[in-house]
Every structure is written in structure tokens, then in C-alpha cells.
Write a structure and sequence with these properties.
The chain has 331 residues and is of the alpha/beta class. It is 42% helix and 12% strand. The protein contains 14 helices and ten strands. The chain has helices at 16-25, 60-64, 102-113, 124-130, 146-152, 178-191, 193-203, 230-238, 246-252, 257-268, 272-290, 295-301, 307-318, 322-329, and strands at 4-9, 34-39, 44-47, 51-54, 67-70, 117-120, 138-139, 157-158, 164-166, 170-173. The strands form three sheets. A six-stranded mixed beta sheet has the order 2-1-5-6-10-9, with helices on both faces. It has a two-stranded antiparallel sheet with strand order 3-4. α6 runs antiparallel to α7 and α9 packs across α10 (257-268).
């Protein structure tokens, strides 16, 4: 991939972390070709948290970008949407927001018409929906605002229990830190698993999480005195080439299988089998990119057993073959 320009659209009331995520993931590195700039409709914006940010460019930056990222915003501040009776909602049903500037809508529509990739983080999905970019598409946002998104924009197919949604050139993430998962997913699409994994390691981010996992995890942190499964998951990642049954994982965690399955779902939002398949595919992608091992050896080393099984999972998850993937991402 040649130089890939990323424009982050900063609006009044934006969430600082939502802005920082794309800057960190797409920041200049030797192994990537991203160039990142922050732009907006004025010279500076007021972020949630009470500080101002001076911008490096205006809305014209969007037209020159290859990818446009729209961070979320605080529901009670800045750019957003006027509640109004025409939406068919009572004022108490929605969050009060100022109207989105017409210049911002026009710039986003123009960027999309020119074939740019458009991405939202968290409540940034409301900005894309207001511009009409999500009509007829699947999309997500922070779990606290999915009802509002669905009510305001009935043409959007709201996905409630996912980390992010990839609709090709339109991508949306769920709440806040799910933006990390989405941005790393984009790097994985552009540059392959090895580069994405290296960026994740430098950020001390979690291993790759598929977008279909539940975004709202009831018990993300273990209660005092309880046994969290982080050590068991880390151990499993080091032993992916071995048979890893629920019984073996539960044994490592010193739990009954029933308790293990319940707790695993609470902590990850998915099942052990789905989590293992995703982890093994991630390892397979990295091995295909960074080694010249045969497909059979890669299948064995990642725990998927046979080349036929590896091809099956690649076709299901990535709509390609291991060989084609290797050709595309070997560096």
C-alpha cells in the first residue's frame, strides 16, 4: 500500500479518547504508510473534558483523504442533533444536541461520493447517520445509545451486540475502546495481521477481537476474591497448536466446566470455541505473512489441524484462501 491519508474529523464536544485512538493506531511507523491529520469546520474545537484543540486543517482535508474517521462526542455537548418533535420522539427520550453544521454533512457526503472510506467511533455513528451515509447499512454505536440511533434513523440497521461493523467502505464501532478493535481491524485489512499485531503489542492492546463479539460485557472485571480467566486465555494463546477442550481450559482455571463457560461468556462476550477459532485464525494469518511454512504446517501450528480445515475457516471468515492471503500480505 502506498501513502494512505487518514483524516480525523474533530467536532465540538468530541470525546478525547475517541480522537486519540485513530491518532495512536494510524500514527507514523516504519512498517505502515499512514499519514494522519486532524481537521474540522473551524480552527479549533472544544473537547469534552474542558479543553480546546487547535486543528491542522479545514474540511477540505476530507476530500484529499483516503480514510475519514469521525470520533464520538459527549451527548450533552457540542455537535449533534436537535431533538424536535419531527423525529416522533418525546424530548425526554433523546439526548439534547446542537444541530450538525451543514458544511460538515456536505463534506462527509462529498468524501463518500468520491469513494473514501468512512469510519465512526462510538457515538460518531450519529454523525454518519445524520449525513445519510448509514442508510440501508448495518451499523453500531455505544450500547447506551443503540435505541436512540434506531429511533432517530429507522433506515439504519442497528447491530446491538457487536464490537464493530464492517460494511466495506463504511465501518462503525461500538463504545469508546471498541474503536481500538475497529482501527486495528482496518490495519489488518490494509497491511495484514503481522503489522496489526505489532501495533497492538506496542499499545499493550488486547489480541484481535472479531467484530461479532458482544460489546456489553456484564462482568469485565473480576469481583474481589473471584478468579478471572485472563491467565487461562493467555495460556491458551501460548498453546494454540494443542487440543484445547473446554474441560482442559476449565481445568487450567481450576473451575467446573459449567462455571467456566458462564464466566468465559461474561468476560469475553463469546464462547470458548468462537474465541479459539478467532485466535487460531489470527495466528495463521501472521504465520502466512511472516514465514514460508507450508499450508499444512501453518494449519498444524495454529491448531486448526489440516490444510482443508484452515481453508474452510479462511473462506468463512475472510472470503479468501490461505494462499491468496499470503500473496496479498507477504512482506
Amino acid at each position: 500500500m502506498g501513502v494512505h491519508r487518514v483524516a480525523v474529523l474533530a467536532l465540538d464536544g468530541m470525546t478525547p479518547l475517541d480522537l486519540a485512538i485513530p491518532l495512536q493506531v494510524f500514527g507514523s511507523r516504519a512498517q505502515s504508510a499512514y499519514e494522519v491529520s486532524v481537521c474540522g469546520p473551524s480552527d479549533s474545537v472544544s473537547a469534552a473534558g474542558g479543553f480546546a484543540l487547535v486543528l491542522s486543517g479545514g474540511l477540505d482535508v476530507l476530500s484529499a483523504a483516503d480514510t475519514v474517521v469521525v470520533p464520538g462526542f459527549d451527548p450533552g455537548l457540542g455537535a449533534g442533533f436537535d431533538p424536535g418533535d419531527d423525529a416522533g420522539l418525546d424530548a425526554g427520550d433523546v439526548s439534547p444536541r446542537e444541530p450538525l453544521p451543514a458544511s460538515v454533512i456536505e463534506a462527509l457526503v462529498t468524501a463518500r461520493d468520491r469513494g473514501r472510506r468512512v469510519v465512526s467511533i462510538c457515538t460518531g455513528a450519529f454523525t454518519l447517520a445524520e449525513a445519510g451515509l448509514l442508510d440501508g447499512l448495518r451499523a453500531t454505536t455505544h450500547w447506551q445509545h443503540t435505541d436512540e440511533l434506531e429511533q432517530r434513523y429507522p433506515d439504519v440497521r442497528v447491530e446491538r451486540d457487536v464490537l464493530y461493523v464492517d460494511e466495506g467502505d463504511i465501518l462503525t464501532s461500538a463504545g469508546v475502546c471498541c474503536g481500538i478493535d475497529l482501527c486495528l481491524h482496518i490495519v489488518r485489512r490494509d497491511l495484514g495481521a503481522a503489522v496489526a499485531n505489532e501495533i497492538a503489542r506496542r499499545m499493550v492492546a488486547a489480541p484481535h477481537r472479531e467484530g461479532g463479539q458482544a460489546q456489553y460485557v456484564p462482568a469485565p472485571v473480576a469481583d474481589a476474591g473471584d478468579t478471572a480467566l485472563a491467565d487461562t486465555r493467555a495460556w491458551a494463546l501460548r498453546h494454540l497448536e494443542e487440543p484445547l477442550t473446554v474441560a482442559r481450559l476449565a481445568g487450567h482455571a481450576a473451575m467446573s466446566e459449567r462455571s467456566f463457560l458462564r464466566r468465559f461468556g461474561e468476560e469475553t462476550g463469546t464462547t470458548p470455541l468462537q474465541w479459539l477459532v478467532g485466535a487460531r485464525l489470527g495466528l495463521a494469518r501472521e504465520l502466512l505473512e511472516t514465514t514460508d511454512h507450508s499450508i499444512d504446517v501453518v494449519a498444524h501450528d495454529c491448531g486448526l489441524g489440516s490444510a482443508a480445515n484452515l481453508r474452510l475457516h479462511f473462506r468463512r471468515a475472510l472470503n479468501t484462501t490461505p494462499t491468496a492471503y499470503r500473496r496479498a500480505f507477504t512482506r
